[in-house]
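Lab notes, practical 5.
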Amino acid sequence: MNETIRKAIYDKYIAPTTKERPDYIGVEIEMPVVNLSGQPVDEAVSIKTAESFIRQFGFIASGSDTDGNITSAKHEQTGDILSFDCCYSNLELSFGKAVGLFEIKDRFERYCRFLNAEFAKHGYTLTGMGVNPNADINHNKPIQNERYRMLYHYLHSYPQHKNEVAMRFHERPDFGTFTSASQVQLDVRYEELTDVINVFGLLEPYKALLFANSYLLDYPEFLCVRNMLWEHSMQGYNPHNVGMFGKKVSGIDELIDYIGTQSIYCTMREGRYIDFTPLTLDEFFSRDSVEGEYFNGESYQKITFAPEISDLEHMRTFKFEDLTFRGTIEYRSSCCQPLSEALTVAAFHTGLKEKLYELKELLENDDVIYSHGFNALELQKLLSKRSQPYFIDENRIEKQLIRILDLSSKGLKQRKLGEEILLAPLYERAQRHTNPARTMLDGINNGIPMINYIEQYAAI
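Output from the prediction step:
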């Protein structure tokens, strides 16, 4: 990799971690919009509800589709954003930089109560699930704007690439329209960067046990199907763009090398998105020209363009521990949680960040799951499923989860904001050996209708 690319990677991803700055928390929560009548979501209902929301809370529209319908709106004082992610049946609330979790929790609950009161007028609700329970009923069509039209087109291009990569593509390229995540961004410092990536990577199998909440009938073996859907799609054409790092990152130079092996699949020219067969950064910037496609207003048209170093702005990765240009790590692997427990993901990570080196010691010496010949990447996949591996001892798992939660609780207590109370639902899950997806499926198997869980996970 030449020095120009290394410097561009360093400047975008590494340099922000060297700057002194306060510790902030960024939270993004995506939620399925559900039509309780069992019919597809009517886009007009979602749009009308969003318009009511921006009037109520003084947000300003900041994005629209090709028909002029609202796709996003922002509150200037707080930095909070309401948006539709991929489609009008997946609503996202993103919160401006915050110091404490309760300020986010208060606004989240205020926003959701209003939104669900508006949706209820039409027999709809937002609910706290990682897969829309009406995934096979909704239209699952992308918002018609440059970004989501390109993404939908790119994800549906997988049949052309089946012989190019040693990977099994799944048959749901529309997954972005019905999967919902709970993501948290936490500031990271240069000297802790590789430790954060490595240690939280070891934590991923345990997170699968606590936070799994995405069940899809197409793949009934999974309690957390979201990650598989990302990894076995065009987003995972290059496995370095998704999931876990696979091996320990030994230092900053190796991290830069790794980023150089990640792929870019889209960029913009003259306001138009272009997508193309993924190319590693090293290969992309070594080419004189790249051939791609763009939507000309009526159909997709071939285009040849010359790479520019500014194209790095358009590289999109979906690592579980994703280093961003903001000097933060975005933790991306957790499903949307029941709305009354929505801040558990952010609280869990915030507390553990404060106890990084105690967590490192605990996980590097773990013999509960790490003594059976499987690495973190393999364990994360195994523990995302309904059937647990033969070597799992549930009582030992419970004790280890409690130790991890105790560390998070200590980290939150250190912050002296009372945030440790937000972990209470996770202690209950650990003690009951369950998570939201398992609880729901156990109930359904005992005759409780899905509608009960849609409403229960929507309650605040």
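Observations recorded by the TA: The longest strand covers residues 25-35. The mean pLDDT is 97.
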